[in-house]
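User: Batch of two.

Assistant: Item 1 of 2:
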Amino acid sequence: MLDRPNPAPIQPPPVPPDDQALLDAYSRAVIDVVDRVGPTVVRLDIKAGSRRGGTGSGVIVAPDGLVLTNSHVVGGAARVNVTTVDGRSLTARAVGDDPDTDLALVRVDAPVTLPAATLGDSKLLKRGQLVIAIGNPLGFESTVTTGVVSALGRSLRARSGRLIDDVIQTYAALNPGNSGGPLVSSRGEVVGINTAVIMGAQGICFAVAANTANFVLGELVRHGRVRRAYIGIAAQQFAVSRRRRHATGLTQDSAVMIASVEPGSPAARAGLASGDIILALDGAAVTGADDLIRLLAGDKIGRTVEIEMLRNGDQRRVSVVPDERAHRG
């Protein structure tokens, strides 16, 4: 046995030429995106009084130093330190914060001209599409991970309790510190803002869609907040029985029952009362409280909306003029 020559090491099979070309194209696509978008990604260090707060990521969306990030990264802090890829340290202030979508906007104090990323149209995304996450996970700056769009149109509950609609699920690995960084398409457009990781799961990560981010960005720049409508009710999901559906001709199996009405509120002025069952708002079905919250967007403020409801088994229509919901600062 000792006299036998050592067997030649087993060599892995060569990569077929066609596969090699595909891998090279994949690498070039990722490298190109990182070269273009990487300089727009910044590290955020939060100042919490005399103590150092947390850290996260952000993406520059305007050359004058406007940075989009997560609400849970900024955490209501007034002052933020921004570190660019080239090592510049800049002070910044929070322009606006929207916990309901977990998005916030920060502006650099100094007069600067910085590289800025472009927000893409997230409606054009497809499942299986290549995406690239750039951020500062666990303090490791300018980290790049790749994956695909795993699912579209997910809902994710924000810390405020409201559902964030149209969330992107991705397999691009995220870790603490990636929050607020961009999810980028192979075209170099920001298609999402990375927001959450499910601990204990393997590769289930989420990003707020760019179209949501674009809307929130505009609202925060114009108003310093995202305006949403309010009618002044406490509501709970209500299961519509088969007998009731048959009697009223309804097709939906759930709706919203009003538990209480705030005195002097738009709902009170319209005559809504406890026990009323809301079926639809302006023709859109209301199957739960989250539907109602989503439908009461800023465009409903001060405008008459039609509520379809059941009262004592009878279908009715009621006109309500929502107020603006008080901002939670």
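Item 2 of 2:
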Amino acid sequence: MNAIPSLLWPMNRVSDALPLKGVHLWAWSLVRASFDLAAEARLLSPVELGRLRRFRFGADRVRFAISHATLRRILSGYLACAPDELLFSTNPYGRPYLAKPATQLSFNMSHTSDVAILGLTCAAELGVDVEMIRPIERDVAQTHFSSRELADLDSLSGPLWLEGFYNCWTRKEAILKAEGLGLNPPLAAFDVSLLPGSPPQLLNSLPSSRLTRAWKLVHLTPSHNTVGALAISSEPSLLSCYTFGS
């Protein structure tokens, strides 16, 4: 079993309404010292249970159950309903949204093997991505990144190269998730900043990227071994980051 990750955001429960033009970000661990799969599964819909059963490995079933049950717990706290009353649907590219109850709440979830994050707002479109920092082949960058991004990566080495890679990857993924187009637009059709310590920014985009907005980016560090990004259509007036405590 993986070690339980140490999350860096302060522990909280859903108790406050979202402020106007504000964003709440939640993180939670997908690794538990003890786990009741049946209890988590009781919160899931028949569609989610079908997806759960199709996982071949037990660890993947646990990860799916925790991430989706916790998503329901957090959303239900804002919407004053029971977690199992939420009804989800998806757009043509697979992005989930709330079909019931009717709400202006925009949300997006991402997870790695150990950590999940969720972004919520009522005032903008958003997307989030989180990745565990681990060694990766340089060919992945060559395949997916733009020439400008590759030039920035070539200026880095060792751990800084790895940090730059994940900065780039999560920012691009967050933008595509905010657009709600899945992975259909080519990742190399738009440039993001990636140098460690530099401000996260969407720098440029080609028409083939199909990007509809000049997305704002926020760098996220929910735990010591993860890096993430928030892409949002307008600058939030307030950004609050929490670790979810059930």
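The chain has a mean pLDDT of 92.
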